[in-house]
Design a protein that fits this description.
By secondary structure, this protein is mainly alpha-helical. Helices cover 65% and strands 0% of the residues. The protein has one domain. The model has no long low-confidence stretch (mean pLDDT 94).
Length: 141
Amino acid sequence: MIFIPAIFLITVLLVIAAWHFYWALGGKSGLSRVLPENREGRKVLAPSKLVTFLVAAGLLAMAVFTWLRVFDNDPLLPHWMLEYGMLVIAAIFFLRAIGDFKYVGLLKKIRHSSFAERDSRYYTPLSILIAIVAVMIDVLF
């Protein structure tokens, strides 16, 4: 029962990482739905394949870190990293949830684009949930 939050977080991070790897390798499906738009509906971001790959690698690293933090009895990582790593993950997703004050997150100003509606309904709540679960894991383990 106590491992459920960790399994949930690892699974979510792996799924999000897989999507980013897919896009980094040239996949197009779903890509138009995850990039912020201005008031006219034009995309305001055009991340390169390298940036998308780095995001995917970071998400994968977060999943691996969570696995090591919870399930590895003989951790390879230094104690300080295990101590603060989950809080760093929580902070990253909490900052994503707050947003950029214009297009993304709780404090976005552009609220009526199709991306903004998906962001408000799915992406920002998921970021908050990930941050909460990361803090839970930090406290429980």
